[in-house]
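[Meeting: bench + compute handoff]

Bench side (C.D.) handed over the final construct sequence. Compute side (W.E.) agreed to return the predicted structure before the next meeting so the bench team could plan truncations. Sequence as handed over:
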Amino acid sequence: MEAYRLSKKIYASTLSGKGAAIKGARWNSIGVEIIYTAINRSLAMAEIAVHFSLAALPSDYMMVTIYVPDDISLLKLIPTDLPTDWNAFPHPSATQAIGDQFIGDNKYCVLQIPSAVTQGDYNLLINPNHPDFIRIKIISIENFPFDKRIFK
């Protein structure tokens, strides 16, 4: 399968989870390395776009296409597996606990979780500490200009 990630150009060629560990996010606490990806390009764009206005629209983003082997160890969570406020903004600490446990248990390489931005779509969280992580590879990096009409 393929996964997609929008990244600033300077970080596009590296999959590490270090960026997510700096600030923490919906599915990880500060200090916990995790790689956020999406199941399609549109979702990858939506997940980034919710954080910007037209005035702050970045011009240096790259679409990173990532190869994830079909037989990689994967845990899929659906909305009914999650706390009722899992998609609230700001995110609850309970979702961070889920991601932190996923990384800490190190049982699965990928966690498939619902998108809080696009109902019905899924994100893929990748554990860079899992032994199978070495099988996950970047297969392309392309410029990604945002369409300004999205930010009207």
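W.E. noted at the follow-up: The longest helix spans residues 93-105. C.D. will use this when planning the next construct.
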